[in-house]
């Protein structure tokens, strides 16, 4: 197991978020975390990246307790792509992608000497090499997200942690980003753990879906097994129907109306 979450508890002042999460992610898997806002999906990613420490339990990356690792050591094991980030004025695509080399080259080394082989490959793999000298601020939202994905790849880790990588993107760019992530996972042999709000996209692009509710894992398994009307009601708070895509075979969701979030899957 590349990522192992063992009885993890975490909370903020006055609010418990995670209360005993168990999760194991195998090498090369693509896992989508789903659930209502505030259920702890993004928090769990930050814990896996070592940015937060559990109040109880442990998270292991390649066998190491991530909470005991120095920040740069943790960054060598997993790359976290946050939901969004405002571009720094005047920063070029090349300069932003080079920031992904912090863990390997240090704060000065990542800015010295231009592209190294890892940075060049990261830009090529997501198709942004031709934009290297363009200001990041001049890019569209979809273009900017591809550049940020290249920055995550430049960390040269086996694990990608993606926090809502399609946020603020139109449908075309959502599909483009998710298809690119899936291609890179297969080509590079990566392990992907990502937060997605669209259950239909999670069912199409992830090999496994993990639903969080009430601070614990409410459902875990292949999309064809776990994407059900009960999951829609219990973990996402909507009544709806589930069909099957006639060509791809993945589940297709047809949400109808909200329901009380206490219905469906039990706490």
Automatic annotation (TrEMBL):
GO terms for biological process: iron ion transport. Its main location: membrane. Residues 3-239 form the ABC transporter domain. GO terms for molecular function: ATP binding; ATP hydrolysis activity. The keyword Phosphoprotein does not apply. Keywords: ATP-binding, Cell membrane, Ion transport, Iron, Iron transport, Membrane, Nucleotide-binding, Transport. Pfam families: ABC_tran. It is found in: Cell membrane. InterPro entries: AAA+_ATPase, ABC_transporter-like_ATP-bd, ABC_transporter-like_CS, P-loop_NTPase, Siderophore_ABC-ATPase. It is a peripheral membrane protein. CDD domains: ABC_Iron-Siderophores_B12_Hemin. GO terms for cellular component: plasma membrane. PROSITE patterns: ABC_TRANSPORTER_1, ABC_TRANSPORTER_2. The keyword Zinc-finger does not apply. This is ABC transporter ATP-binding protein. It comes from Streptomyces qinzhouensis.
């Amino acid at each position: 197991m590349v990522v192992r979450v063992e009885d993890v508890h975490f909370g903020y002042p006055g609010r418990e978020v995670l209360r005993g999460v168990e999760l194991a992610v195998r090498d090369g898997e693509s896992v989508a975390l789903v659930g209502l806002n505030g259920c702890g999906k993004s928090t769990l990613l930050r814990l896996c990246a070592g940015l937060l420490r559990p109040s109880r339990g442990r998270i292991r990356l390649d066998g190491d307790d991530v909470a005991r690792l120095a920040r740069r050591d943790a960054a060598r094991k997993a790359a976290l792509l946050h939901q969004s980030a405002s571009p720094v004025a005047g920063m070029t695509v090349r300069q932003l992608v080079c920031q992904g080399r912090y863990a390997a080259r240090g704060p000065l080394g990542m800015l010295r000497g231009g592209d190294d082989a890892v940075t060049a490959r990261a830009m090529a793999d997501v198709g942004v090499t031709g934009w290297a000298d363009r200001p990041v601020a001049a890019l569209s939202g979809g273009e900017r997200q591809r550049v940020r994905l290249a920055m995550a790849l430049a960390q040269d880790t086996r694990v990608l942690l993606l926090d809502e990588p399609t946020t603020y993107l139109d449908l075309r760019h959502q599909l483009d980003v998710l298809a690119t992530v899936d291609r890179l996972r297969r080509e590079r042999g990566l392990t992907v753990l990502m937060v997605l709000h669209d259950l239909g996209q999670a069912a199409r692009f992830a090999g496994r879906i993990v639903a969080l509710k009430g601070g614990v894992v409410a459902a875990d398994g292949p999309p064809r097994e776990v994407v059900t009307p009960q999951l829609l009601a219990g973990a996402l708070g909507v009544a709806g129907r589930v069909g099957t895509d006639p060509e791809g075979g993945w589940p297709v969701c047809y949400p109808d109306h909200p329901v009380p979030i206490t219905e469906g899957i039990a706490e």
